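Friendly challenge for the regulars: who can give me the structure tokens for this chain first? No prize, just bragging rights.
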Amino acid sequence: MAEFGRGAKAGVVAGLIIGALAAIIGTALAMTIFYDETIGVAMQAIEESGAPMDMNDLRNMVLGFMVIGSIIGAVITALFGAIFGLIYAWLYGRLPGITPIAKGVVVGLGWWIVGTIFGIVLTMAISSIMGPMAQEQMTIATSSTMMAIDTIIDLATKILYGYLLGRFWIRFGE
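First reply, four minutes later:
Bragging rights claimed.
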């Protein structure tokens, strides 16, 4: 019989950890390596709105949005962690891998694949609804380097999620 409570608990804890880690890495990258790009996108939006804002205000606003977004992102990741923890518990006997950790990594990779496909479909849907201007804005907002790094970080955090899911599955089973 599936141990849904154990799976959800392991998934939430693993999800909170990777959500917090992704938030820290994302904010650090946006405010260091991608600082000019991040501020440039915000500056373009402010200029289009016509609101007067100096560079300090703009930087503080961007940092505030990043912190708030990171907290929301960590909570959402914990919720998805619970969902994938339930899937893990449900499919545990059928997942490839001998150890709980290997099975967890399979679930983490599955989450990454589902999330990547969803992101592509969502981007295409927004482009088709909003038209060429939306595609242009999305291209301006994210360089190919930023997108590649985001994809690598996302893959790494989902593999880490799977590892942690398996570890917490073991721990919560004791």
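DSSP finds six helices and no strands in the chain. The mean pLDDT is 86. Your move, everyone else.
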